[in-house]
Amino acid sequence: MGQFSLLKGISPWTLAIAIAAVVVLPATSGGQWIKIFTSTACFTLAIAGIAFMYARLGMVNLAQIALMGLGGWVTLRLNHAFALPFELNVLLGGFVTMVFGAVLAIPALRMRGLYLALVTLMAAGALEIVFGTYGFPNGGEGFWGVQTSLADKMRRPALAQSDAAYLRYVLVVVILGFLLIEAHRRTAPGRAWAMIRRSEAAAMAAGVNVTLYKTWAFAISGLLGGIAGGLLAGSLGLLDPGSFRAPESILLFALAVVGGARFWLGAVIGAALYRILPALLNDWGLDADLSFVIFGAGLLHAVITAPDGIAGQILAGLKRKEKDAVQVTHVDTNQMKAEAQGAAQQTTQAAVELNDVSVQFGGVKALQNISARFEQPITGIIGPNGAGKTTLMNVFSGFVTARGTVQIGDLVLTELAPSGRSQAGLRRSFQKEEIANDLSVRDNILVQLDSIGGNKDDLDRAIAFVGLSGMEDIMGAELNAFERRLVDLARCIVGDPKIIMLDEPAGGLSSSETDRLGDLILHLPEVTKAKVLVIDHDVDLIKRICAETLVLDFGQMVAFGPTEEVLNNPKVKAAYLGTAEEVV
Question: What is the dihedral of CA 287, 288, 293, 296, to 10 degrees?
Answer without folding.
Answer: 180
